[in-house]
Give the backbone structure.
Amino acid sequence: MVGRPRGVDDAAILRATADVVGRVGPAGLTLAAVAREVGLVPGTLMQRFGSKRGLLLVFAERAAERAEAEARTAPERLRRAHGSALAALTALLVESMEPMTTPETYANHLAFLCLDLSDPEFHAHALTVHRAERRAVEELLTAAVAAGELRGGTDVGPLARSVQAMAGGAGLIWALDREGTLAQRMRQEIDEVLARHTVRPVVRHVDLPADLPVDPPADLPVDPARTR
C-alpha cells in the first residue's frame, strides 16, 4: 500500500496490537501507540485498517483464524512433544495464557473479553476461538481415554466444558490472590479437575512379605535375589 514502509507486514502490526492491549487494554489502545511500536505513522494504520475499531476487528479475526488452525494441529503436536494426551492438554491451556504474565496484563486482556461480549462482530470471533479450543480439548481428552490415562467410559463432552470453565476461573482467582504464576495455577487446577477421572497406577511389590515395614530397618537382611 502507498505510504506503508516495506518490511512492516500485518503480522508485525497485529503483534504490536497485542502488546499494547496487554499494557493498556483495548480502551487505552490508540493507533498512534501501535504505530510507535512498529515504527509507522498513525496515518498508515488509518489507511490500512480504517479506524481503531477496524484494527481491533482484524486483530480479533486473525486470533480466530489462528485458534482454528491450532485446533487442527496442536493436539498431535503437543502429544508428540509431551508424551501423553493429558500433558498435552495442560500445555495447550498454559500456552493459551502465555501473554498474561501479570495480573495487570490479565486484566487488560479480560477487558477485551468484555468487548467480545458486548459487540456482535467481536463476539462472533470470540465464539470461534472458544469453539476451536473446545474441539482441541475434547480431542486430547478422547486420546487420554484411549491411552488409558483417563478411565474408560469418561464422557469427554461435559469434562471438556468443565476444563474450559476451570481455565477461565483459574485466571480470575489468580489475578485476585496473586499466588505463584498463572501457569502454576493452571497446572494445579487442571490436575484437580481431572483427578476423579484419572487412572492411577497401582504400584505392586512383587515377592515382598506382606508384613514388611514401609521403612525397613537399615540392618534388615537383604536377599540378593530380590535386587535383580
